[in-house]
Amino acid sequence: MDAFSAFFESHSASRNSWSYDSLKNFRQISPIVQTHLKQVYLSLCCALIASAVGAYLHVLWNIGGLLTTVACMGSIVWLLSTPPYEEQKRVALLMAAALFEGASIGPLIELAIEIDPSILVSAFVGCAVAFGCFSVAAMLARRREYLYLGGLLSSGLSILFWLHFASSVFGGSAALFKFELYFGLLVFVGYIVVDTQDIIEKAHFGDLDYVKHALTLFTDFAAVFVRILIIMVSYAYLHSIWKT
């Protein structure tokens, strides 16, 4: 109980001291780390573009499925096993993984376009705004402030895995699916904060592997985007049924 009270007291104190000047307070992030973060987010933007290309290729030629999912996982494993000095190869593998990921979620994107194309734009904008807000919050927070949440999020991720496994084996219900969806969204939003602080902390200690760090943030972004899109598609589908 003391830990919880201390947690809320510290956060209420930080809210009381919040001002416009605090939005510009990146002094705790050294210039080297700031340069590293620019490389990470530039690589993330390129990966998102590659993912959009992959989704577009699926819409054109229906290539998304199990093979692209396996290819995405293979590209990620290949990237992580490639030495950091092979920079161009690792960047190419990151773009390949992003392209295959985009093709893999292509069927969901195609469904959203068929129901209402504006859903896709709204889901991406909502995901981008949430990602940006939580990333900035992690940068402005005190160093290592949210890293302790990593254990809780790992536990939440394992719960999601076993729930998905149980529903696959024994059959699932609509209520269980909704719980997995919203709980998964909460977990991966938390990972945005934790991973951002983890990247900053590693960079302070000399780990400037921007390709691997961009991959980490890309997986967070993709996980949040897919869940937001599923929620919006579900509500749009139910709304269309009620109208008819």
List keywords for this structure.
244 residues; mainly alpha; 10 helices; 84% helix
Would you kindly provide a written description of the structure presented here, covering whatever features stand out?
The protein is mostly helical and 244 residues long. The chain contains 10 helices and no strands. Helix 3 (31-61) crosses helix 5, helix 7 (117-140) crosses helix 9 (174-204) and helix 8 runs antiparallel to helix 9. Mean pLDDT is 86; it is low at 1-25.
Summarize model confidence as the mean pLDDT. 86
Helix share bin: over 70%
What percentage of amino acids are in beta strands? under 5%
Q: Report the end-to-end length measured between terminal Cα atoms.
A: 52 Å
Tell me the overall shape. Answer: globular
Low-confidence stretches: 1-25
Number of helices: 10
Q: Quick one: biggest sheet? A: none
Report the order of strands and helices. HHHHHHHHHH
What is the structural class? mainly alpha
Radius of gyration: 19 Å
According to DSSP, the number of beta strands is: 0
